[in-house]
Sequence to fold (153 residues):
Amino acid sequence: MSSNGSNDHVTEAARGGSDRGSIQWLRGVTLVTVILGAVGSIGLTLRAGRGSDSPLLKALFVVWVFSPFAALLLGVVKARRWPTFARVAVYGEALIVSGVALAIYGGVIPAPAGSPPAFRFLMVPLGSWALIATIAGAVVLIARGRARRGSGG
Fold:
């Protein structure tokens, strides 16, 4: 680094490029993970419901199980223009929901003893929606706080 600080600009630009690259990489991994999570969750839902004679019930379960993944996919796509902290929060929750949902649906994380087979397929989407709403609310509050501080209010 020179005494006039000319390398500071180059170093900062390089660091910013690296951060953008890391965020883009995380976004790509998140998109793939959410898509695989959705497909896997739907497959496991259909497998669990193969004994059911009601196509309507199967369809309702598939829609319910898929719904948090649809919201997460929308969030990941929309987050491209959001502040970095918001993107990282959305990507992180999407990765967590996808992994935990597959682990629960696949039986890696067992359902509570004595619960009916449909329990996990009802409660995991509900819990996912609760987490999505909590993270979204926190991101909005943090962004508003930052905006107020930035505008001097």
